[in-house]
Design a protein that fits this description.
By secondary structure, this protein is α+β, with helices and mostly antiparallel strands. It is 29% helix and 17% strand. The chain has a 9-stranded antiparallel sheet, with helices on both faces. A two-stranded antiparallel sheet has the order 1-2. A hairpin with a 4-residue loop joins strand 4 and strand 5.
């Protein structure tokens, strides 16, 4: 009995030591400076209070391992229910990063060629397929458009397809290709959805099945999906506007590669770790995904200034890879993805060569105002193009 008790005590001590090593040590930044967990906690709590951010979920990586994973604030400010690591959060455009990784798995397995025109995978023009969804698989507008036939998977992933971000941004709300595919960068959710729809026809599988088969099941991301599931009802975040008022939760979306991911901090951490440790992709494919395909010169990512050029980001050689924004730093490339939605703002950046990264998830329209300071404080990231992404610090807004 004494031997059993001694072994049990030893096991507890080992587990305690392991937990301290994983989440108790200081966090190492890109420049090798450190910040204690306690000091980072205090800083985050101060930021969300000052900027009126209802809820926040953070994970940080050192040497490709999770060294910090915490949630702050409320999933619903009205009920004062707290966010937890397993609370469902609408992923917005983080959807694109996960989908792009799945696409690269198909490329790695020889199922898809990045440079073959997507229309060539189909036995008939895409506009001849009968739409079955609310709107996103309706390509009737392309009957008289010949440029779309040049669009490849690579162009969809690096946002050079020529499609608008969304068709309803066009004055007549009709889908069209606005410039020669591959010639320049212009962020496009429609491009990712077009790639999705072609793959669904070509492989005879719905998006959700492809994602579960290639990403969610292998990584045990049990609470992630591209469509709302009844099990999410018990614990999910509600979005908050800049005044702290609640948005109505959208639960009836068709699965779309660019925008409908539902996930949790726990699950998205598993995904990010898999990228850093080549669990899903081999090093060669990962490198290709994270390699700049197109240089970005625009003043802003969105809005009127997205069509005007500047040299402001030449110092970080800002560009786009395959599904990810790419920048250069003294610590190697940084690859990032944002997420915007009504009441949700997210940001993730990883520095693969340094083994350092961060995930920031929030259910507040005000969250972007703390991203710059949070990135600098937590991992020493002073390279993120926050002005281009319109992450204007909360204390600089007028």
């Amino acid at each position: 009995m004494k031997i059993k008790n001694s072994l049990f005590t030893l096991l507890l001590l080992l587990l305690f030591h392991f937990s301290l090593n994983c989440f108790g040590q200081d966090i190492v930044k890109l420049d090798k400076k450190k910040i204690s967990v306690a000091n980072l906690d205090t800083k985050i709590e101060s930021l969300i209070k000052s900027a009126h951010v209802e809820g926040l979920a953070i994970a940080i990586f050192n040497k490709n391992k999770v060294v910090y994973k915490k949630t702050f604030g409320y999933k619903n400010a009205l009920t004062k229910e707290l966010i937890k690591n397993e609370t469902n959060i609408y992923g917005a455009s983080l959807s694109k990063a996960v989908f792009s990784t799945m696409v690269m798995i198909l490329v790695q397995n020889g199922i898809l060629d990045l440079d073959k025109p997507l229309q060539d995978y189909l036995p008939k023009p895409i506009y001849e397929y009968k739409p079955t969804k609310k709107w996103h698989d309706n390509y009737q507008d392309l009957k008289r458009d010949t440029l779309y036939q040049k669009i490849t998977a690579r162009m969809c992933l690096d946002h050079t397809s020529g499609f608008p971000n969304w068709r309803w941004y066009e004055s007549d709300e009709k889908l069209r290709v606005n410039f020669t595919p591959g010639s320049r960068y212009s962020y496009s959710g429609e491009g990712l959805v077009y790639l999705q729809v072609v793959l669904e026809y070509y492989l005879n599988k719905p998006l959700e099945e492809m994602m579960q088969e290639n990403i969610f099941n292998p990584l045990k991301m049990k609470n992630s999906s591209y469509k709302w599931k009844p099990k999410f009802e018990k614990d999910y975040c509600v979005g908050h506007n800049s005044k702290g008022e609640l948005y109505e939760k959208d639960k009836d979306n068709d699965a779309r590669s660019a925008s409908t991911l539902e996930t949790t901090l726990n699950d998205y951490t598993l995904f990010t770790k898999a990228l850093l440790t080549n669990q899903l992709l081999n090093p060669i494919t990962t490198k290709e995904m994270f390699t700049q395909q197109i240089k970005i010169k625009s003043i802003k990512q969105f809005g009127p200034l997205s069509t005007k050029e500047s040299n402001a980001n030449d110092g970080i050689n800002l560009g786009y890879g395959l599904g990810w924004g790419v920048l250069q730093s003294p610590y190697g490339p940084g690859v990032f993805k944002e997420g915007y939605g009504s009441g949700f703002q997210h940001y993730s950046i990883i520095y693969p060569q340094a083994g350092i990264g961060i995930i920031i998830l929030s259910n507040s329209d005000n969250a972007g105002g703390i991203f710059k300071e949070l990135l600098e404080t937590s991992i020493g990231d002073i390279y993120t193009p926050w002005q281009w992404e319109n992450y204007i610090p909360y204390n600089q807004k007028q």
